[in-house]
């Protein structure tokens, strides 16, 4: 039995906007939930900023870590040509800077730290 009629023409909530807001607020649980739905991690706001950039701006290192681990592009640039790493550095968010710098180094040299003979 269907208690609530659903209007098929209603727009679905935009998961990308929800991700941007959750990342900016540092809401790790919401970000993880949205990642689990397969949300587009590269959704951008009007300034060209992604969720990773919003998390970096706010110094929400756990959210930065979750987004990077989920595959968010750490090299992407906003409308001002700033990356998440640049934003974190500008805002003085040292833990996020360290995390993003380390993630960038691993992507540039995936063999770094591997044992050599």
UniProtKB/TrEMBL annotation:
Keywords: ANK repeat, Repeat
InterPro entries recorded: Ankyrin_rpt, Ankyrin_rpt-contain_sf
Family annotation (Pfam families): Ank_2 (PF12796)
Superkingdom, natural source: Bacteria
Positions annotated as ANK repeat: 47-79
Protein's name in the database: Ankyrin repeat domain-containing protein
Species assigned in the record: Comamonas antarctica
């Amino acid at each position: 039995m269907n208690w609530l009629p659903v209007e098929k023409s209603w727009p679905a909530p935009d998961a990308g906007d929800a991700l941007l807001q959750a990342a900016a607020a540092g809401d790790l649980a919401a970000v993880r939930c949205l990642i689990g739905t397969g949300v587009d991690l590269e959704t951008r706001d009007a300034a060209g900023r992604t969720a990773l950039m919003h998390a970096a701006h706010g110094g929400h290192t756990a959210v930065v870590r979750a987004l990077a681990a989920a595959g968010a592009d750490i090299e992407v640039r906003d409308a001002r040509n700033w990356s998440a790493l640049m934003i974190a550095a500008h805002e003085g968010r040292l833990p996020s800077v360290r995390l993003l710098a380390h993630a960038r180094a691993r992507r540039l040299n995936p063999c770094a730290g591997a044992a050599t003979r």
